[in-house]
Design a protein that fits this description.
The chain is α+β, with helices and mostly antiparallel strands. The chain has three helices and ten strands, in the order H-E-E-E-H-E-H-E-E-E-E-E-E.
Length: 224
Amino acid sequence: MKKIFILMAMILQMLCAFADEMLIRKAIEDMHSSVLVEKPWLSARSSALLENAYKPDEFEWVNLSDNDVATCWCEGVRGPGINEYVLMSIDHENGLSFDYGRAQRFKNIKCHLEINNGFCKSQDLFVKNNRVKTCRIEIYDTPEVYGQYEIFVRADPVKIYDSVLELADTSETQEFEFFITLREDNIYDMPLVLMKLTILDVYPGTDYDDTCISEIKVYGEYAE
């Protein structure tokens, strides 16, 4: 009986991993198609809040990288948004993409993550809305190849980092550092390195059951 349960657990784990990989792959393909036709990359998040009094993109994921803590991404499901997520690409600190050749030589990439938790437009809005208490950080390495007019995903995403972060209940910038290692084979052109941040627990707001994040900045640098 114990062997059956272990086997079932292994199968379930494999199915979950496969689903995550397909989610990331589809998100990347949607990102490239969105760029080509100049439409919003809606696969960058699981949901976003819609309020009748505000414009449709008032609480979209793009607010996370606009260098303005007065705007925010807010999840859009009923309740505190547990398991809702947002995706962010990780580029080199100089704005360029990583490549497998240099990553092989330097072995590691040191990632820098900065988060402004909650709705930081004012202390009043910060307190009234939920803030993230714990979140899961997953990073995927997905090989790509550049065509004449399109960018293609060449192989399935591989998860190269998985950790849980606990955030402080403050609107001040919180900083984290961690190391990742890209896949060892370099038969592909370059990777798209994608971070998935998933809400696991929240600090409850006094008035609203909406969970907000104002800014996320993440980038990497080659390290020995």
